[in-house]
Amino acid sequence: MRQSLLKDTIPRVAILNVVLAIAISINLAACDEDRTCTVDEFKADRTLREETITTCANNPANLDKTPNCINARQAAWKVRLENMR
C-alpha cells in the first residue's frame, strides 16, 4: 500500500515541479529590461513583484528610478493597503 502511494505521489510531484518551473520562467521573462510591467501585473504576481523589489533594493543607484521598480513598489503598497481592509 505504501509503495503504491509513493509511486503515485512521486510522478505528481515531479510534474508539479516542472509546471512550476515553467510558470516561473514565463513570469520572469514577462517583464525584463525591454518591457515594463504594469502595477496590475505586479499585483497579480507576488513572486515577480518580490523578486523585482529585491533586485531594485540590491542596486538602488541604477534601478531605483526604473519603471519596473517604481511599478513593483506601487503594487506592493496597493497590496498592503488592500490587505488592511
| Average pLDDT level | 80
Helix % is: over 70%
Q: How many helical elements?
A: 5
Low-confidence stretches: none
Rounded to the nearest angstrom, the radius of gyration is 18 Å
Largest sheet: none
Find the structural class using helix and strand composition: mainly alpha
Q: How many beta-strand segments?
A: 0
Residues in β-strands, percent:
under 5%
The overall number of domains is: 1
What coarse outline follows from CA principal-axis ratios?
Answer: extended
Distance from first to last alpha carbon: 47 Å
Order of helices and strands: HHHHH
Q: What can you see in these coordinates?
A:
There is one protein chain. The chain has helices at 2-30, 39-44, 46-58, 60-63, 67-84. The chain is mainly α. The protein has one domain. It is extended.
Throw out a few tags for this protein.
85 residues, mainly alpha, 82% helix, extended
Task: Reconstruct the topology from this structure.
Blueprint: H1 2-30, H2 39-44, H3 46-58, H4 60-63, H5 67-84
Helix pairs in contact: 3-5
Structure described in brief:
The mean pLDDT is 80.
